[in-house]
Amino acid sequence: MERLNGVVQPYAWGSRTAIPDFLGVAPSGEPQAELWLGAHPLAPSTIDGEPLDKLVAHDPVGVVGAASVDAFGPRLPFLLKVIAAAQPLSLQAHPSRAEAEAGFESEQAAGIPRDAPNRTYRDGWPKPEVLCALVTTEALCGFREPDETYQMFAKLGVADALDLVGPLADAALSGEERLATVFARLLRLTSEQRCMITDVVQAAEAVQASDELALFGRTAIELNTFYPDDPGVLAALLMNRITLHPGEALYMPPGNLHAYLSGGGIEIMANSDNVMRGGLTRKYVNVEELLAIVDFTPGFHGLITPIEESRGVWRYPTPAPEFGLWRIEAG
Questions:
Q1: DSSP structure string for 263-292
Q2: What average pLDDT does range 60-82 have in this prediction?
Q3: Which entry of 178, 283, 294, 302 is 20 to 30 Å from 51 by CA?
Q4: What pTM value is reported for the model?
C-alpha cells in the first residue's frame, strides 16, 4: 500500500477549514473547496511525487487491473473528491458519453486549450456522480413537478414572475416541455427583466409561514445573497430542494441538473471534469450547452438506499459502470 497525495482545488465557494480539518493540517486562510483523489490529467494525485495518471499509463493492468482496462482503456475510470461547500455551487449538469465525445472533439478542433476558462468539454468522458454526505448538506437536484412550482410562484404574488413562468401551468404541454420552456426563459432574462429577481426575493422575505413556501422563498434569499441579480436565482426555484444527513447519498446521472447549497461529503464520479454551468458562479457559463444536455423529466429520483453487505459495510448501488462506493463503519 502506498500513500496517495491529493490535490486541493481553491474554488471560491469552498470552506476555509473543513478540508484542512479532514487532512489534519493547518488552514491556509484560503477557500479549499475540493480535494481530488484520482488520475484526472488536470489535477492528478501523486505517489512519491509521481503523477497517478502517468503511473497508470506506464502499467495500466498492474495499477487498475485487466478488467478495468478491458472496459475503459488504460486509465483510472473514476475520480473521488472530498468536497466542502461554504456557499452555493453553480447550477450545473454533466453530459452523456456521446455528448462528451462530440463536445470534446469540437473544442479540440477549435484549438481551445483544455485548461482555458471558456472551455466546456475538458475531456471526452461522461460524469455521472454520487455525493455521500459527511455533514448535513443542502442541495438542489432535478425538477419539481411544474404545477407545484407554479403554485409556489402564485403564492409569492409577483405578477411579472408569474407571467414569465406561466407555461408551467399549461396542461397542453408535457411536464418536460413546460420545464424546458420556463427554465430557458429564466436563464435568458434580459437586463431589464432582472429587476423581478429583487421583487421575488423581497416577496420571499415577507413570507411568515414555516411551510414549503417558506423553504421555496428561502432558496431565493440564500442564492441572491451570494449571487445578486443572477438569473440562476429564479431558475433554481424550479428544482427540488433536499437535505442530506450524514451517510445519505444522491446519484446524479448525465443530464441531471443540480447544485449544492452548503455542506459536503465524499463525491465519486466518472473520471471527468465536464461541467455545463447555467449560473450561480463566477466561472464560465454556457447556457445554450446546458439547455442542450439537461434532462427535464420532473420528479425526484436521486436518493440512494444503501445496502448493508456485511456488518458495518454499506454499498451505494448505482447504474454507473465507472465506479462503486462503499461506506465502512468501524467498531
A1: EEEEEEEES----EEEESSSS---HHHHHH
A2: 96
A3: 283
A4: 0.93
